[in-house]
Amino acid sequence: MSQPPLIDSRRHAVFLDFDGTLVDLVDDPSAVVIAPAALARLEALRAELSGALAIVSGRRIADLDRFLSPLRFAAAGVHGLERRLHPDGAVERLAGPETLDALRAALAPTLLAESRLTLEDKGTALVLHYRTAPDLKDRAEQAMTEATQGRDDLVVMLGDNIVEVHPAGMDKGVAVAEMLQQPPFAGRVPVYVGDDTTDEFALRHVRDNGGVSIKVGTKESVAAHRLADVGAVHHWLGAAT
Ligand SMILES: O=P(O)(O)OC[C@H]1O[C@H](O[C@H]2O[C@H](CO)[C@@H](O)[C@H](O)[C@H]2O)[C@H](O)[C@@H](O)[C@@H]1O
């Protein structure tokens, strides 16, 4: 995998993952921080791209807004189950939290028994976190498998020290493909940057459709290009032409 080409602000639409791409991974999911200088660079880049810059994340858009405050960006949140095409627009939700009520109940005994496993409830998705208890990886995956037994309407995804469940039929690849049909992204060449397994859906879509696919870090990937870490991502974003 090679170094990525520089962003061409006249031609490209830029889609950026959040955790592990724009911010370093930390133990507490609520404790991620973006440097003010990096935030200012993102804002400048969005203007140069005539708005064609979006965050594509497993996070809720409300959480992204909090981390990126005072800025707001176009975004696909919860792996595409939430959408906002324009920073000042309303968030569109493609599923409601009630879909996961039975799962909340089914996971409760495991959470009671294993206090080192934590649940992040994103409404339309549930996440079991085990970063601070890596020995509980199998236990978390087993609990999620058992809780989702017979639920073909749901999909379980393994991320970086997490196991996550949400309604089936949506992933970051579908989200990027759909956003590319709409202004300000339509007609531009997609660039996608991401670090995790859930980014592979989008990296594959972009790679197969003439775009620029960029993996962050050393994990295996379908991407054509690589950047070493979060610092390298911000450096590269700042070099856009
Ligand atoms: O799609 P992303 O923007 O990369 O979001 C994926 C998940 O990110 C968060 O979890 C990850 O980051 C946490 C903070 O650094 C870390 O503690 C955790 O181990 C990582 O998996 C977020 O909490 C999840 O909801 C997102 O799905």
What does this structure look like?
The strands form two sheets. The protein has an eight-stranded mixed beta sheet. It has a four-stranded antiparallel beta sheet with strand order 6-7-9-8, with helices on one face. Strand 6 and strand 7 form a beta hairpin. The mean pLDDT is 96. The protein has two domains: 151 residues, Rossmann fold, CATH 3.40.50.1000; 71 residues, Trehalose-6-phosphate phosphatase related protein, domain 2 (Alpha-Beta Plaits, 2-Layer Sandwich), CATH 3.30.70. It is an alpha/beta fold and 241 residues long. It binds ligand L263DTV3. This is Trehalose 6-phosphate phosphatase. Its EC number is 3.1.3.12. Removes the phosphate from trehalose 6-phosphate to produce free trehalose. It is an enzyme of class 3 (hydrolase).
Low-confidence stretches: none
Overall form: globular
Which class do the helix and strand fractions yield?
Answer: alpha/beta
How many domains? The number is 2
Query: What is the annotated CATH architecture of the largest domain?
Result: 3-Layer(aba) Sandwich
Averaged pLDDT: 96
Radius of gyration: 18 Å
CATH fold name of the largest domain: Rossmann fold
Q: What's the CATH class label of the largest domain?
A: Alpha Beta
Ordered list of secondary-structure elements with their pairings:
Elements: E1 12-16, H1 36-48, E2 53-56, H2 61-67, E3 74-77, E4 82-84, E5 92-93, H3 101-113, E6 118-121, E7 126-129, H4 137-147, E8 154-159, E9 162-167, H5 172-179, E10 189-194, H6 200-208, E11 212-216, E12 225-227, H7 230-237
Parallel strand pairs: 1-2, 1-10, 2-3, 10-11, 11-12
Antiparallel strand pairs: 3-4, 4-5, 6-7, 7-9, 8-9
The structure holds the ligand O=P(O)(O)OC[C@H]1O[C@H](O[C@H]2O[C@H](CO)[C@@H](O)[C@H](O)[C@H]2O)[C@H](O)[C@@H](O)[C@@H]1O.
Ligand L263DTV3 binds at residues 17-20, 25-27, 29, 32, 57-59, 120, 122, 127, 129, 131, 159-162, 164, 196, 198.
